[in-house]
């Protein structure tokens, strides 16, 4: 039977109410162990549970936390058959995407999960989600990739988004089929398998302020755009455009700013603001001008995947044309090919 390492990082699943709102519960690890021990013997994969201190609300997550996870995985990789990461839901899709790009090809599954209601609270989804993640990670045909298990769904991590604030079905992958679905049994389906390989378990050199997001909206001024793009620290930008990838014209001034920025080496990726679908930069004249300004079409990348892909590639030292080429093609199944 598979042997798993469960890594607990924080998040609602391990919190308890306090007068100040939900805070991490010091009893969570013991509560979870006790709840898992109540499952019929031999029906769940063997496992160890490791708590990563300090526990965080994942809204406080910074890229350094991804290096911390990589360090723990590096130490444990040879000793386990799969890994389950217990994480807050707010930035769970970012961590799943970032890990997929950091680790590269995998020979073992890494499954993230969390919960909308803490373990021990009435109607908590925590135990079901943890058990689903364990069953997915321990499955003999588990996808060798970073996945999210949540509310009976198994999703490709770098395709997933937190789509609902309240619903227990909080995660979905609007641009890709699910990897699996749990009814009475866990049924693996969906996407063609990614190439299997030995993971890169080295740390990356993340720097704050290298990546920004520019969300186009009516009323955006050329001065606002220029201020953001002229930041000398900035190395990569996710441009959130309308529909199939259309930016506002701003009398040609947006394009001028973008062209100047790409000429000085900034990597700009165009991602749609729509909840579902792909960018097609050539469809309208407005979008086509982005192509001419050197903006890379992000295809059907989620914003989370676009941001973390840029962050990880920059942290791995990619620059210039190599960076642009890597952004334009799928690395770990995160986007459709051009
Ligand atoms: N703020 C919490 C977190 O992301 C929300 C959750 O876990 O559901 O850690």
Provide the residue-averaged pLDDT: 96
Placed side by side, the strands forming the largest sheet appear as 4-1-5-6-7-8-11-12
Helix content: 25-40%
Please name the CATH topology of the largest domain.
Rossmann fold
The CATH class of the largest domain is identified as Alpha Beta
CATH superfamily of the largest domain: L-asparaginase, N-terminal domain
Bound molecules: aspartic acid
Number of domains: 2
Order of SSEs, N→C? EEEHEHEHEHEEEEEEEHEHEHEHH
Please summarize the sheet with the most strands.
8 strands, mixed
Q: Count the DSSP helices.
A: 9
Radius of gyration: 21 Å
Number of strands: 16
**CATH architecture grouping of the largest domain:** 3-Layer(aba) Sandwich
Shape: elongated
Identify low-pLDDT runs: none
Distance between the termini: 41 Å
* Class based on secondary structure composition and strand pairing: alpha/beta
Portion in beta strands: 15-25%
């Amino acid at each position: 039977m598979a042997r798993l390492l469960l890594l607990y990082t924080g998040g609602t699943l391990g919190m308890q109410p306090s007068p100040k709102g939900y805070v991490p519960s010091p009893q969570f690890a013991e509560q979870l162990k006790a709840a898992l021990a109540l499952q019929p013997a031999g029906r769940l994969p063997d496992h160890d549970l490791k708590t990563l201190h300090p526990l965080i609300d994942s809204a406080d997550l910074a890229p350094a936390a991804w290096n911390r996870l990589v360090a723990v995985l590096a130490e444990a990789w040879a000793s386990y058959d799969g890994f389950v990461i217990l994480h807050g839901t707010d930035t769970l899709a970012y961590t799943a995407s970032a890990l997929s790009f950091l680790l590269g090809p995998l020979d073992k599954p890494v499954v993230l999960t969390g919960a909308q209601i803490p373990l021990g609270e009435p109607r908590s989804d925590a135990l079901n989600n943890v058990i689903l993640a364990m069953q997915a990670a321990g499955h003999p045909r588990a996808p060798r990739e970073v996945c999210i298990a949540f509310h009976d769904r198994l999703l490709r991590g770098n395709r997933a988004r937190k789509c609902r604030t309240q619903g227990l079905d909080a995660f979905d992958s609007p641009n890709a089929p699910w990897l699996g679905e749990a009814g009475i049994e866990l049924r693996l389906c969906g996407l063609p398998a990614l190439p299997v390989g030995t993971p890169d378990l080295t740390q990356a050199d993340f720097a704050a302020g290298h990546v920004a997001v520019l969300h186009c909206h009516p009323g955006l001024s050329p001065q606002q755009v220029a201020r953001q793009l002229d930041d000398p620290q900035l190395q990569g930008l996710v441009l959130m455009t309308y529909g199939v990838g259309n930016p506002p014209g701003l009398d040609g001034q947006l394009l001028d700013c973008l062209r100047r920025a790409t000429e000085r080496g900034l990597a700009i990726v165009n991602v749609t603001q729509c909840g579902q679908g792909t960018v097609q930069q050539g469809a309208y004249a407005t979008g086509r001008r982005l192509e001419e300004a050197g903006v890379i079409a992000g295809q059907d990348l989620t914003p989370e995947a676009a941001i973390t892909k840029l962050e990880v590639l920059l942290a791995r030292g990619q620059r210039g044309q190599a960076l642009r080429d890597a952004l334009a093609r799928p690395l770990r199944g995160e986007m459709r090919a051009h």
